[in-house]
Amino acid sequence: MLMDTILFYLFAALVLGGGILTITRRNAVHSAIFLILSLLGVAGLYLLQSAEFLFAVQIVLYVGGIMVLFLFVIMLVNLDQAAKEKQFNRQWTVALACAGLVGAEIFYFLAKGAGAFQLAKGTAEANTGMGNTERLADALFSQYLLPFEIASLLLLVAVVGSVVMAKKRI
Amino acid sequence: MHPITTAHYLGLSAALLLIGTVGVLTRRNIVIILMSIELILNAVNLNLIAFSKALQSVNGQIFAIFVITDAVAEAAVGLGILIALFRNKETVLADEIDLLKW
Amino acid sequence: MNFLDQIWLIPLFPLLGAVLMLLFGKKLDPQPASDVAVAPGVEHTHDEHDTHGHGHGHGHTHDHGHDHAHGGGHGHGSPLKILVSLLCPGMVLLSFLFSLGAVMQLAQLPTKVHQVVQFTWLAGMPFHMLDGRIATFSADWGFLLDPLSAVMILVVTGVGFLIHVYSVGYMAHDNGYYRFFGYLNLFVFFMLMLVLANNYALLFVGWEGVGLCSYLLIGFYYQKKSAADAGKKAFVVNRVGDAGFILGMLLLYALLGTSRFVDVNHALQSGQFHAETAGFGVLSAIALLFFTGATGKSAQFPLYVWLPDAMEGPTPVSALIHAATMVTAGVYMVARSAALFQLTPATSSIVASVGAFTAILAASIALVQNDIKRVLAYSTVSQLGYMFLALGVGAYWVAIFHLFPHAFFKALLFLCSGSVIHAMGGEQDMRRMGALKDKIPVTHWTMWVASLAIAGIPGLAGFFSKDEILWQAYSSPSGSQVLWLIGLVTAGMTAFYMWRLMNMTFYGKSHVAPEVEAHIHESPATMTVPLTVLAIGSALGGWLGVPKLWGLPESFRAFEHWLAPAFAAAAAEGEHGGAHGASIEWILMSVSVAIAIIGIAVARYFYHTKPEIPEKLELRLKPLYGLLLNKWYVDEIYDFLFVNGLAKGGGRAMAAFDLSVIDGAVNGAGWFTRFCSTISMWWDTWIIDGAVRLGSFTVKLLSYPVCFLQTGRVQAYALFFVVGVLAFFGYYVIR
User: Fold this and answer.
1) Residue A91 located in a structural domain
2) Do residues A5 and A73 share a domain?
3) How many domains does chain A have?
4) Which of A48, C130, C210, C314 lies 20 to 30 Å from B75 when distance is taken between CA atoms?
5) Which residue is closest to C725 within chain A, CA to CA?
6) How far is A8 from A44, CA to CA, in rounded Å?
7) Which residues pair with C115 in a beta bridge?
8) Pair C151, C400: CB distance under 8 Å
9) Domain of A53?
10) Domain assignment of residue B99, yes or no
């Protein structure tokens, strides 16, 4: 239990620290690095929640796929000019205030209903005798087959769309 | 020290969401805005996983997978748009792209 | 041959001549200066008509050798011109012969009235008469021959023929020879229509027709501005009278429902109407309107001013139209309406007064005029005044009796003056004449006869008629001593100015310019023969109306008896001679003869024996002389009153009216329209458009806050999301 707690706070610190640094860095590459850090923290939290498959997906897709894509774009786009500009826009104070208020409200709700939340003892796998990935596959390819296929179509559209937009001349 | 409960995860998720939101709302660099969106999506995923665990249900994780899929698609399209935009406007600053107004 | 039923032919002969002249004259005229209007499309018929005209001309010469002799008398000009010289007077001669035949046959009739109706000329339009009955407005194309019109047609055709013959010589060297004869024939046609018409409407046709011819002939030398102006003046002044005539005619129509003389006279004499002795009724109004017409046509005060100016026309025109015939149309018309004037003593006295006043006024002007034709013109006005004096006192036959010899001697005087002018090469100022007696003897002797006649020397025509007028003016119930005295003074003046003219022209020392003197010659036979004929007429014409007093056989009073049927009503009243003693008549006659002789003697003393006296008198009586020389300034007064005052002033008033009222109305309407349109525009702009704009403005106004939200920056929109979320959560927080 203690181990879990320590790990949670560790990963939480990783996530929040990475996130804060991501949005405050002047250099986009630094931001990307800190984002990777934050995502890794999230991946660790997945593991803590015994979602192993998602842990793997997080590492492979996010850190390996999306962030590489980001880095490629950063390379493609000349960000030197942008780096010299002001990093925050004019509404940043208002935005910060609003976000803070929203956060206050959320935490107010959380504090009010904190007692209602209790993590389950053990895991679903333990109850059914099936592994995490097996159960996911079971649900995904039976119950969620149609959304799964639609999601694949979505990806295809996204690929075609990004190619069309990024190409200089079709 | 209290044991870690779902509320902790939700608080963390909310904090991450707020960080992402602040990034989206305040940064001028579109690349970083896109990254902030990733942060928000991860906050969502955290939430989903937390409830998946609490409810002993795999559906939350399924949804997290779809969210990741969306995030990938979004990142691909968003960055494609960014490249096209940069090619035409020579800028990646969000508040300089304000043609669509009265 | 029954001439009586063929009287409609009488006017047609001159019309034929006029049509031939005016349509084809230009083609015949070898002189290019003539400018007769030729109807288009006559060219191809030219030859045909040419030969036709030839045949006509020969027909005349065979029938009337007399005509031929005259025509042959003047040997110059082209053969075609000679043909015209035969044709036009020939036509008038034919009319004269027909008239003579008709009058002789008329004399055989017991009633002495013959009416020929050709057709209905103005077909009827129904209208309400004054008494409410419905009558039809219609007029015949009909001819009436009675003693009155018989006298007139004989004068018109007889004197007209002689003047035509005279014109052949007088106009021989003139351009527009054909035009002249065309107009002259046309005039004779209209004059015959006037005197032969059997109703007032047809009379009016002739009335206007002679006015037209008068205008055309006064302005015959239309290149001369004064001639053209004189023509216009005559035309315009005559219009004033004509307006009165038309009104009178229509009023008569409304009263009686007919315009035939026979019917009108019958109605008036039927006893249906009583003489308007007390006041001024509708009959008096009609008579006065007719008299207004007569003052225009017959040159009476106040409308006489055109006649002296009419002397701008060729002299034969002055003789024929402005002395012998046309100007007597008014006298004829009043005499024709005798039955009407009989019933209206008030108007009759106006007629007499106007006549007397005109007579003395014109005679006084004639005393000092130096233009030979102007003296005669004022003399004409004066003599016409005599005639109206006679008409006014109810002595209708006397007026016609004076008209008859007057036609002779006044035509003769004019023709003689024309002959003098002809001899002098165009000179008309008597101060540059003198001692012409032996150079142009025929002219002198004929003019001598005429002057004695007009002066009223016993035995010559003028004496009888003038004396009769004076006697009637004195003795008639509507006459008075004043009228007689005016007439007497006028007679003295007449004798004086005529013999002043004679002395200045024919006797005494010659004032002729030397270069003119060499060319003075007696006129050709075509001119002198008519002079002689007219002189005989002037001398003997009066013996048709010898005073009853003289006790000669009744045949010497043929004129009165001849006209008696025409003035039956007047004659009934005319038996008043007994009221005055024979001795008075003898005395008056002697006085008038004496004053004539005194006038002649004074004239001779002034202008022959002691030529310096007039100049002294001129100096001594300068204001009076100036007044007379300038014709009492009547022309100037008219110019001031009517031309400048009424016409120009009226024109100015009209212009002011036009500018202020008409233009004002138009401008006002324009302004009002603009005003309305301004209001409308204002309404449109501010209310209608305003409503639309208000709508759009409201939308725009409402859109402003929203506009401010639409910044175009994506992150601002994202912030709104967050704000929305904040509000959403806030709702739950507060709840």
Assistant:
1) no
2) yes
3) 2
4) A48
5) A102
6) 8
7) C144
8) yes
9) 1-79
10) no
